[in-house]
Design goal:
heterodimer, A: mainly alpha, 80% helix, 0% strand, elongated, B: mainly alpha, 3 helices
Chain lengths: 152, 93
């Protein structure tokens, strides 16, 4: 029993670090997309470690294997749904013209990227893969070059 | 151990609720509410273990289901202004 308590305690402690760090990041981060990153860490990492600790406790200390199976089901379900919800929130924010910030406070991406999303969203194939990755990268590069031109 | 877990999750919930109240945009608030929902799932399960009744995980599983549906429904409502409409109206087809 003592060994199980120690192992599950370590797992729950790591999970607590993830959860609390994600919550602090959600308050302290400067930008919507960075906050999204902090919240996603909480959803996956924190939930996984805390649930592993709780499964160990339920199976060996409380002697209730049904509860352990249900916690495992919760893990599986949340690992499908939490990234989906995060992606939906991110895409909705991008469609609503919330622009990511870069390090020096200037926005790297200008209106062209969000305009690209909005135009291409009209046919079905582009919803499944909205923009080709090379196009996004070249867009970022163009926007950066424009910013440098403006600053000099 | 379970008491410490419950206290940490409640502190995290307070921080997340600060972001939900401050959030400059709608999406910050929605993100904070979604994150709070995930934390409440863990909180319900941990509280069940704290009081010696692990059967509380049934409620946690149910809450996880409701939380996901609620986030997607609120997003859809703010994107289209209507829960009944889809991304593709009948005119487009």
């Amino acid at each position: 029993m003592l060994l199980i308590d120690i192992i599950s305690g370590v797992f729950i402690f790591i999970g607590c670090l993830f959860v609390f760090g994600g919550a602090v990041g959600l308050v302290r981060m400067p930008d919507f997309y960075t906050r999204l990153h902090a919240a996603s860490v909480t959803d996956t990492g924190g939930l996984l470690f805390i649930s592993i600790g709780l499964i160990l406790q339920a199976a060996f200390v409380f002697d209730n294997p049904m509860a352990a199976i249900k916690i495992a089901l919760t893990i599986v379900f949340l690992f499908f749904t939490a990234p989906t919800a995060s992606h939906a929130v991110a895409k909705a924010a991008l469609m609503a013209n919330i622009i990511p910030q870069c390090q020096n406070g200037k926005s790297v991406v200008d209106e062209s990227l969000t305009a690209l999303y909005k135009d291409k969203d009209k046919d079905l194939s582009s919803v499944l893969m909205p923009v080709d990755p090379p196009e996004i990268i070249s867009n970022f590069a163009n926007a950066e070059a424009d910013n440098k031109d403006k600053s000099t | 151990m379970f008491l410490a877990l419950v206290i940490v999750i409640i502190l995290s919930l307070i921080l997340v609720m600060i972001r939900a109240l401050l959030g400059p945009t709608l999406y910050d608030r929605l993100l904070a509410v979604n994150s709070a929902g995930t934390k409440v799932v863990i909180l319900i399960a941990a509280y069940g273990f704290l009081t010696g009744r692990p059967d509380f995980v049934d409620i946690a599983l149910l809450y996880a289901l409701i939380n996901y549906i609620a986030t997607i429904a609120v997003l859809k409502f703010f994107e289209y202004g209507d829960l009944g409409s889809g991304a593709y109206q009948e005119d487009d087809l």
